[in-house]
Amino acid sequence: MRLLYGCTDQVSAFVAGLIPGCEAGFGNCKALGVVDDDTGELVAGMVFHDWQPGPGLIQISSASTTPRWLTAEVRHKMFSYPFDEVGCQMVVLQVSAANERMVRIAKAFGFTPHFIERMRGRNEDGYVFTLTDDAWRNSKFTRKYHGQA
Q: CA 90 to CA 133: how far, in whole Å?
C-alpha cells in the first residue's frame, strides 16, 4: 500500500461514494488516498473537512474497499497530517453505530465515543468520536515517533 497525494477531488469522491448519505460530498477539503501496490487501484481514502481554525477542530471521514489499507504508515500519516501539519488540537469522526468494525477501530485508536440516538436518521444511531492531539501523541501507536519507549 502506498499513499496518494494531490488528488483531493478523486479521493474525496471515492470516499463519498462509499459512505451512505454522503452523496453531496465534503465541500472544501483535503484528501489522502491509499493505492494498492499490486493493482494500482485506489482502495481507501481519508478526507479532512469542516476545518475550524478558531477551536482547532477538523473532521475526518474515511472509507475503503479492503481492510488491508490501514497499515502503520497510513495510520501515522492519517493523524500526523491534522495534528502536526495543520495544527489541529482535535479530530472529530462520525460513525454509524451499525458500523461495529469502525466503532471498534476508533476506540482502539484512543477516540472518545459520544453516543447519539438517531444521529444518522430516525432508525440509525451513531457516534461522534473525538481525539485530541495529546491523546494521539500519548497513544501506543505513536510512542516511537515521539521518542517514547
A: 6
- The count of structural domains within the chain is 1
Nearest CA to 78 out of 100, 61, 95, 56 is that of: 61
Reduced to 3 states (helix: H, G, I; strand: E, B; else coil), residue 56 is: coil
Q: Which residues of 9-27 are buried (b: 16+ CB within 10 A; e: fewer)?
A: eebbbbbbeebeeeeeebe
Q: 132 - beta bridge partners?
A: 90
CATH code of the domain in which 96 resides: 3.40.630.30
pTM across the whole model? 0.88
What does the DSSP assignment read for 81-129? IIIIII--SEEEEEEETT-HHHHHHHHHTTPEEEEETTTTSTT--EEEE
pLDDT tens column, 26-80: 999 999 999 999 999 999 999 999 999 999 999 999 999 998 898 888 888 889 8
For 147, phi then psi, to 5°, come to 70, 25
Segments forming the whole domain that contains residue 58:
2-146
Residue with cell 500526523: 80
